[in-house]
Amino acid sequence: MLARVTYDDGLGASDSNWGTMLHAGGHVKLTEEDKISLVANYGLGLGRYMYGGAPSMAVECRTGRVFAAGCGARLHAVEMWGGWVGYTRKWSEAWRSSIHYGLVRNNIPVDVLGAAGAQGRVRALDSLHLNAFWSPVERVEIGVEWMWGWRRDAAAPDGSSTSGRAERAQAAIKFLF
Questions:
Q1: pTM score of the predicted model
Q2: 138 partner at 20 to 30 Å CA-CA among 108, 109, 146, 163?
Q3: Considering its fold, how many domains does the chain have in total?
Q4: Is 56 within a domain?
C-alpha cells in the first residue's frame, strides 16, 4: 500500500509525506480439523491500518514553537510492525475454537513529539484471544471470546513500569442470509 498524508493546520503550518505498508498472510491446513494462520505487517505511516494506538504521522514544529502560525510543521512517518499467529480446531460440524496471539510495535518518535506529545501513545501492544463457536443449525453461529491484552507506553523508557493490562469477554450471534 502507498498513501500520501497531508497536514495543514490552517494557520500556516503544513507538510506532506508518504505512508507505505507491506502485508503478508495465509494459513496452513494441518489436517481436516486443524489449521495455523499467520499475518505480518510492516510499514511507515500506517497507524490507521494497524491497531495499536499509534498515529500514522508525527507532526514536528521546526521552529520549536508549539503549533503556532508559521511554525514550519514537518511530518514524520511512524514506523510500525506487527501481526498475529493463530491455531483453529474444528471439533465437530457444530463446534470450533481457536487461540490467537497478536502484537504491534510502534517506533514512536519521542524525540520529535517530546514526552508530553508521546504520552498515551502505545509503543508495544500484545494480545491473546481464546474463543469458541457453535453452529446449532445451518447459517447460524454463536460465539464467545476471552481476550487478554498488555501495553507499554511510548513515553516510558525501556524497562519502566508505565504499562497497562486489560481483559475482555465478548459474545456474538451471526445469522447468514
A1: 0.78
A2: 146
A3: 1
A4: no
